[in-house]
Design brief:
Elements: E1 4-7, E2 11-14, E3 22-23, H1 41-45, E4 48-49, E5 52-53, E6 61-66, E7 74-78
Antiparallel strand pairs: 1-2, 2-3, 4-5, 6-7
């Protein structure tokens, strides 16, 4: 089976070349890690995501990899 993963604060998976994506994780970033110092004021104040409003969550998943210990388990690393 060929799978491809994509992430923002959630982990997504496709097994049909990107024809459709399935969210396979909850939000994996911290609830409120503080405002990163490198954000401009407009971005720092933006708490919207689509039509829903969330608290300040700027973290993202930066690394995705298969577990070296358990088959069918995926490890991720976030920036927060």
């Amino acid at each position: 089976k060929h799978e491809l993963f994509f992430s923002n604060q959630f982990l997504f998976e496709t097994d049909n070349g990107g024809g459709s994506w399935r969210k396979i994780s909850p939000d994996l970033t911290r609830e409120n890690p503080g405002i990163p110092s490198n954000l401009d004021p407009a971005t720092a104040n933006d708490t919207t995501y689509g039509e829903r409003t969330y608290g300040p969550r700027w973290g993202v998943i930066y690394s995705i990899g298969p577990s070296p210990i358990l088959p069918h388990e995926i490890w991720v690393g976030t920036d927060d």
